[in-house]
Amino acid sequence: MESVKILLEAGADINLVDSRSESSFEKAARAGRGPVIEHMLANTDFRLDLSSSVFGEGQNVLHVAAAKCFHKSVEVILRKRAADLNRGDSSGRTPLMLAAANGCLEVVKALVSMGSAVDVNAKDACNQTALHAACRSNKNGDQIGRLLFQRDDIR
Predict the structure, then answer these.
(1) Is 45 inside a domain boundary?
(2) Which domain, by its residues, includes 55?
(3) In total, how many domains does the chain have?
(4) 8-47 pLDDT tens trace
(5) Which residues pair with 115 in a beta bridge?
(6) Rounded CA gap, 24 and 99, in Å?
(7) 0.85 exceeded by the pTM?
(8) Alpha-carbon span 39 to 19, nearest angstrom
(9) What is the C-alpha separation between 49 and 47, in angstroms, rounded?
């Protein structure tokens, strides 16, 4: 974290992307560096569109952080409204579906706490929802299922 602060203070440009079109912010999110991305968003002229498809399978930075259970990164992205909450990847899977499938309870809590901004009934290419994913998950599936059922709009 300290090296990131020093580089940013020295004028490192957070908006530059590498040969894979990934920014340092996206790399930090992929690695689950919540404090680093929070510092980057709070202390820089951040202009990148994180909703764009930057990772494999048409996933944005929120998909990656949600699928890897990086709840601190997800919370920062949500707080800053830095990515589309309901965007489906190339298979139609939303960040909520990926988090539910991987048993990422804290990430699911963070996403569901966004209320109606997160579509709990979104369907992927196989017509499955986050609830389907939670039911298949061996990790926290019961808790995630109960959490999803607390929503009034679950179908």
Answers:
(1) yes
(2) 2-149
(3) 1
(4) 889 888 878 889 878 887 788 778 787 887 788 776 676 6
(5) none
(6) 23
(7) no
(8) 24
(9) 7
